[in-house]
């Protein structure tokens, strides 16, 4: 059984079992009208048909050309399945209390209905408003190693644009560029995942993204998606050519890619090292980074590292380098956050914000774009302004 079939079975169970339970637990008791009973099943049948088609018949071309439509299909799937799952959970939770303690079922059912309604509101808000609710976050990094001339130096960090998901909707990207430029940064950095799969996703967006402006320029690195490992290429040479094309497009936009290399940023008589590595992820994510090659020649300097995957910080950066501050992305905060909690925390020890080990630090930006669901709730698209300060 391949991976797609496993996913299909999981989705089907996730969707159909709650439907069956609610149908026999409530619907058959509420109405005897055959038309109403059939109407209950129509959304489920339509969505199940869609899952079958996407799992067994859709090809990569369809998935790429209709990314937004598939995303909205996914929103509909969760809009119909997640609230039902919540209601089923609380209904079943109340069953043993009713049977053995004679507690009434109503409070459990009402709790389930209330939370199911909240879930519906959250999904609708996150899909229609949350994914474009840009948040500018201001953070400071203080270090005694920072050269005096860089005290107050402002860096705008952007990450995880996933530009293919914005096809036909360039207004939010224009807004992002305007917000980033309004910060009057000395430097703009982009920490990977510019595209979902292919360089051609940038068509129509190059002029907008080339509008990013900072005194010391715009620098970028590659993320796992930029290597297009999730697209079924007919020939490995096509995948290589795609990466070359992506690099060419970034150069034409005025962005400077740092692929296991560094540059020196000057301010007055002082300087710092800006270092960039190719994606260095934990398995199964691609590992192309060469930190030692990238930092060679920057020994003794204040070192600012761009590395897409935050797990790189503990795996290699802390034990094998003297990097002062690392900037990463990748996690998206799983596009869902409640206060200071996100499901991303179950996967990534460092998933959003600033983390310290002594005076050394990692900042994780939760990104601008989205993968799969056109949805963000709580984990709003982020533009980070990092101010370097000398202690």
Automatic annotation (TrEMBL):
- Kindly list any coiled-coil regions of this protein: none
* InterPro entries per UniProt: Calcineurin-like_PHP, Metallo-depent_PP-like, Metallophosphoesterase_sf
TM spans (from-to):
6-26, 38-58, 70-95, 107-128
Positions of the Calcineurin-like phosphoesterase domain: 154-333
The superkingdom of the source organism is: Bacteria
MF terms (GO), sorted A to Z: metal ion binding; UDP-2,3-diacylglucosamine hydrolase activity
Q: Which GO terms describe its biological process?
A: lipid A biosynthetic process
**GO cellular component term of the entry, any:** membrane
Name of this protein = Phosphoesterase
Q: Which Pfam family, an example, fits this chain? A: Metallophos
Alphabetical keyword list: Hydrolase, Membrane, Metal-binding, Transmembrane, Transmembrane helix
* PANTHER family for the chain: PHOSPHODIESTERASE YAEI (PTHR31302:SF31), TRANSMEMBRANE PROTEIN WITH METALLOPHOSPHOESTERASE DOMAIN-RELATED (PTHR31302)
**CDD domains to which the protein is assigned, alphabetical:** MPP_YkuE_C
